[in-house]
Amino acid sequence: MLKKVRRIFFFNLKLFITKLVNILLIRLNNTSIPNLNKNYISDLSWDHNSKSLLFKKNNDKFKIFRIDVTNAKTELCKIGAKFGTDKSPYNTQGARHSYTAIYDFLFSTLRNNKMNIGEIGIAKNSGIKTFREYFKFSKIYGFEFDQKLLKNAKKDNLAKTKYFHIDVSNKDNIFQTFKSTNQKFKIIIDDSTHMFDHQINIIKNVYSFIESGGYLIIEDVAYFRNLEIEYIKKIQKYLKYFSNIYFIEANHINKYTMHKEKITNDRLIVLIKK
């Protein structure tokens, strides 16, 4: 009993010191790793076999992965860097995320299949070009609000690639735009406004256009405490359409943000259709 009390006391002492240091580092525009919070503390329980406190995940509605891909320079990473997409950690033309390594892991066995792949938010068309080269036998669909970006993208004359105007702030417009394609998609990736409400709009209105076993991926999800729970609350009625939901934190030593506020938004939501 005394040993148990001692373990609990020293655990909480270390937790208090970590939190104190974390507060000081935040004031210096830095953070400690890991960032311990109340959710983890409430899910701690005593394990009699190992005589230690263990974290017991009680929420099975979503799963969280933290993956470091610094040592994974995939072919998709190289293609992404060539076309200057911020999805690649080797991009030299602006921001850098770590998504291409994750996508290569998820889709390398599918890349030679004939599929329909959609990207919402095309910017300078770099992501579309990347997917066009990687998925050689698939049809690529780009969705964008900015008419000028759409016009410029069409000038690239990419094979088996179509473009559509979309307004992700308008739920009905999202649904009708995807309906107009007359297609089911194996992969849909959202890289549009990165706004919470718009991401929810997309999840609620494109799920019916995804094949069974297909992927809906939301990019650039920001880091806020309990944000995963907020997403799940908003799409509660739609969870029945997905077999799995993963929040993936993609880390790489090269990742870089161009936000003035230095917002960290290197997370993905991966939803797999039933």
Q: How would you briefly describe this protein structure?
A:
The protein is 34% helix and 24% strand.
Oligomer: single chain
Structural class: alpha/beta
Q: Kindly state the mean pLDDT as a whole number? A: 87
Q: Judging from the principal axes of the Cα atoms, what is the shape? A: globular
Radius of gyration: 21 Å
Task: Name the poorly predicted regions.
Answer: 31-39
Helix content: 25-40%
The CATH H-level homologous superfamily of the largest domain: Vaccinia Virus protein VP39
CATH topology of the largest domain: Rossmann fold
Strands, total number: 10
Number of domains: 2
Strand order of the largest sheet: 3-9-10-8-7-4-5-6
**C-alpha termini separation:** 48 Å
How would you describe this protein?
This protein is of the alpha/beta class. It has two domains: 2-55, no CATH class; 63-273, Vaccinia Virus protein VP39 (Rossmann fold). Helix content is 34%, strand content 24%. It is built from nine helices and ten strands. The protein has helices at residues 2-27, 38-42, 75-83, 99-107, 126-134, 147-154, 171-179, 196-206, 227-234, and strands at 44-47, 52-55, 63-68, 116-120, 139-144, 161-165, 185-190, 210-221, 242-251, 267-273. The strands form two sheets. Strands 3-9-10-8-7-4-5-6 form an eight-stranded mixed beta sheet, sandwiched between helices. β4, α5 (126-134) and β5 form a beta-alpha-beta unit. The chain is globular and about 70 Å long. Mean pLDDT is 87; it is low at 31-39.
